[in-house]
Amino acid sequence: MTLSLSNLDFALIAIYFVIVVSIGYFSSRHQTSKDFLIAERRLGTLQTMATVNASKTGAVVMFFVTMVYMWGFSAIWYFVGATLGIILFIPFSLRLKQSSNQRFYTLADYFKYNYGKKSATAASLMTIFLMFGMSTLSLLAATKIFVFFSGWPFYVCAIIVMLIVSIYLLLGGFKAVVKTDIIQYIAMLFILFILAVLIFDTSLISTSDWSPFQAGPGTIAGFFLMGILFPFSMPELWQRVYSAKDKKTLKNGFLMSAGVYFFFALFLGLVALGIKARFPGIDPDTALIYGFKELLPTGLLGLSVVMLFSAIMSSLDTYIFTGASAIVQDFSKENGTKTVQNIRKTVVILTVLATATAILVQNIVIGSYIFVSFAIVLSIISFSTWIKKNIKDTTLLTGFIFGVIGVIVFLITSLIQGEITPTIIIAGLGASIFGLIIGSLFRKVQNVCAHYRRGLTKNQ
User: What pTM, to 2 d.p., does this model score?
Assistant: First the structure.
């Protein structure tokens, strides 16, 4: 089924595409390499809030509506965790800002300067994997929308979406990402508020869908942990820490981010419940856009598509740029203009690979569980450095290894059983903590043995 858009609807979508490409063009004028890489480290409070929230929204919009179809309002536990996670991340981010000393660009830089090359390499590889995965999921979501309203082949829509994103990324880099995030997030909030007012109707929603515990303890724990630990593993969020003007701006930006993000979740939840109540039997993956098609008049329908594109593309550009930055800056000693050139080349490669992967996979929910579970591994490792500042490089590496193995084993088991659920996140968390404990014990055994050998040598 395709979505019938009027000329006005198509005009609104076309205007949106022109605006984001224009932002990329104007961002590239008189641009320094530092502008392209980290926006001169001058982000203000509003910029920090908008770009943090926009980068965290993306495919979550489609994913959350799908979860509401499956478990009702109890899916809100993800956003509850995410809101608390941002607040919990603030003291860590202030320390991160302090220690970065205007020299960090990527998440792996933190590990390299504070702990060593082993954990830094593991963190960088995980970053690249996650950013590629998340960009693929975001592209999947955007393409599903495009296919739905155009009726064009999936591969054509995927190529068009990625082409638009890559154009303004190649032109403006991180500076363009931030500027488009601000415009896109303001548009998202405004349109979503209007849609919530128009679509939500309490009389149509069943009592069971209102239950905050409908999903069950395992799934709820998975949602909550997913949200609360996410900031510690999202390298694009760390880039926002590095690019903030100062610690006060960073703190205020994150506090504002937490508050606005939760209200965004409430509005989105009300829209999802309203659509589910009216159309309970439709495909959850396209429920949001189907609801818009059936319930919104001309003009507002175009605006709703713009909102969805804004949400998804604001994350897609971030993931592509962050992944490209990690590949180039973590594994190359080049700097300045040469780094910018290499990142642009890498952006092209990643966009091609992500587009090909999206065309092959075409499933948002399963992909979300898989990539999020690996993100939790990185979250636990990052969180452990906050809890224990003098933790050793080998201990962190062991945590990475056990966490990844744990997720893979659980994933294979789930595939054999025929179902992947949010409990995979708990598996990633447990395996990572176990790995850190093993690494710490191994380190202590090494120290005891070394002490014993020194004693023998001294006695001889």
Answer: 0.84
